[in-house]
Specification:
Layout: H1 5-25, H2 32-37, H3 44-55, H4 58-70, H5 76-99, H6 106-113, H7 115-147, H8 152-168, H9 172-200, H10 204-214, H11 232-248, H12 251-258, H13 263-297, H14 311-319, H15 324-359, H16 365-390, H17 396-420, H18 426-445, H19 454-469, H20 496-499
Helix pairs in contact: 1-8, 1-9, 1-15, 3-9, 3-12, 3-13, 3-15, 4-13, 4-15, 5-11, 5-13, 6-7, 6-17, 7-8, 7-14, 7-15, 7-16, 7-17, 8-15, 8-16, 9-13, 9-15, 10-13, 11-17, 11-19, 14-15, 15-16, 17-18, 17-19, 18-19
């Protein structure tokens, strides 16, 4: 069975609609603050939906059901960790960013540790998110390849090209408001699948849970500690740090929250995301369990080559009627597009704000805007190439955890060293980062630990070495307001001239 003309029509209508919304806002930006932060005037509900849609990519939409189908439901613990991390985001990270009126979170690192540190963490962000963009392109391309006769390579080129064209329309306003529509489509698709799949399984929800229990897939509630496999405890520890990185440090999220009008709106957006995580992660894992129960009840119907991340798109097209299946596949693509546009815009913001402007302080706004749009095209082409590498890693969640452990964990370590430790130095962090990345690559090569451990292992190695080396020598001289212990000395939010200085001489 191939993707029907009706389903194709639904998909094309969706893509045209997203391009139309993007075009509606394109070309209105007159400064980089307009392009990257929408003038800091976005309403919090739109930002909250955009933020969730950006982080919850097609990798999540396909990867979590695939994880529950192939392994277990240990990722359910992630939904419980989101509300735990929310107060840390509100109380620790964002007061620094908003009082200093930053465009990127990495400007804080420049203030705290100097320009070399700012460049280093910005580079790690770019490496991590370009790899992530490759996975974002690969996930919907894999879905299209699974449900149609289109080869995987052609699907990757098609999805990468469409996402790049859409993102090129540019500006955070365009990105956020298209993300709002994509959030509605994505969440609506997840709800529809959670309702429809039990109807395909004899015995419904009760049979799904019993089948999962008998197969040992409810081990998300297991609190054993085993470096060789994924359990509830290991996921809880890992994602305590991953969520802190995703929502407190990563520019994809920080950029949106810095565009909110008020502090109250920022708090509301963070809490909205935490509560949405609880619901959506539970739904996606339940969908995976439903798919597993269906294959057990209907042996032989699923082709042998369709496993893991590919099961959901195959099931959608083969078990649901035309039109409806097109809408559900569109929900997968909505998750991808919302992440692709956000990633490109954020990477462009980091390159312009953290690399180009410090090197060329007289760069005009017109030239900076032109550069941001050119970067979008270049990033789209590069991310499409990375998608071919992502296709060789294995499961989507595995690819995500590998990239995050290598590049993002050391970044979180430097932020927390800077905020919590007055004696921390960039040189100590740099040593810790080299050691952490080297050991993580060795662990991956020799399969020394489950990939869920990559992030906490890399973070703890970097932070520990950085903290230890900070004990030697005299404490560095710091501008007031850059650590948690003297944050009240930071400039007020309404004093942008003072806050926008990029770094202090140590």
């Amino acid at each position: 069975m191939i993707f029907s003309p009706l389903n194709t029509g639904v998909l094309v209508l969706y893509l045209v609609g997203m391009l139309a919304i993007g075009w509606r806002f394109a070309g209105r930006q007159r400064s980089t603050e307009d392009f990257f932060l929408a003038g800091r005037q976005l309403p919090w509900p739109a930002v909250a939906m955009s933020m969730y849609a950006s982080v919850t990519s097609a990798m999540t939409f396909l990867g979590l059901p695939g994880m529950a189908y192939s392994a277990n439901t240990a990722f359910i613990v992630v939904s419980f960790m989101s509300p735990v991390v929310a107060p840390i985001l509100i109380g620790v990270f964002y007061p620094f960013y908003r009082r200093w009126r930053l465009t990127t979170s990495y400007e804080y690192i420049g203030l705290r540790f100097g320009p070399a540190a700012r460049s280093a963490v910005s580079a790690l962000f770019v490496l991590a998110r370009v790899g992530w963009l490759g996975i974002v392109v690969y996930a919907p391309a894999m879905a299209l390849s699974t449900v149609s006769t289109l080869p995987l390579w052609a699907a990757i080129v098609l999805m990468g090209g469409l996402a790049t064209m859409y993102t090129w329309l540019g500006g955070l306003s365009a990105v956020v408001w298209t993300d709002v529509a994509q959030f509605i489509v994505m969440i609506g698709g997840a709800i529809a699948l959670a309702i429809l799949i039990p109807r395909e399984v004899p015995g419904g929800t009760a049979a799904i849970l019993e089948t999962a229990r008998a197969a040992g897939k409810l081990t998300g509630f297991s609190w054993s500690w085993d470096v060789g496999r994924m359990t509830g405890l290991t996921v809880m520890v890992s994602y305590f740090f991953v969520l802190m990185q995703d929502y407190g440090v990563d520019q994809v999220t920080v950029q949106r929250l810095l565009a909110v009008r008020t502090n109250r709106g920022l708090v509301c957006a963070i809490l909205f995301n935490a509560l949405t995580d609880v619901i959506v992660i539970a739904m996606l894992l339940f969908i995976g369990l439903g798919l597993f129960a269906w294959t057990q009840a209907q042996p032989g119907l699923l082709p042998s080559g369709v496993t893991g991340d590919r099961v959901l798109p195959w099931f959608i097209v083969h078990r649901f009627p035309d039109g409806l299946s097109g809408l559900l596949i569109t929900a997968v693509l909505a998750a991808a597009m919302s992440s692709m546009d956000s990633g490109m815009n954020s990477i462009s913001a980091v390159i312009v704000s953290d690399f180009v402007r410090p090197a060329h302080p007289t760069l005009s706004e017109t030239a900076a805007l032109r550069l941001a749009r050119v970067l979008t095209l270049a990033l789209g082409a590069f991310a499409t190439g990375v998608a071919f590498w992502a296709s060789s890693i294995g499961g989507l969640v595995t690819a995500f955890l590998t990239i995050m452990g290598l590049f993002s964990a050391p970044v979180l370590a430097l932020f927390l060293l800077g905020m919590l430790d007055r004696r921390a130095r960039f040189s100590g962090w740099a040593v810790g980062t080299v050691v952490a990345i080297s050991l993580t690559l060795l662990a991956q090569r020799y399969d020394a630990m489950n990939e869920i451990f990559f992030f906490p292992f890399s973070f703890s190695t970097t932070y520990s070495i950085g903290w230890l080396l900070g004990r030697f020598g005299c404490a560095p001289s710091l501008r007031p307001g850059l650590t948690l212990w003297d944050r009240a000395a930071a400039p007020a939010e309404d004093d942008p001239a003072s806050a926008r200085q990029t770094h202090v001489k140590k």
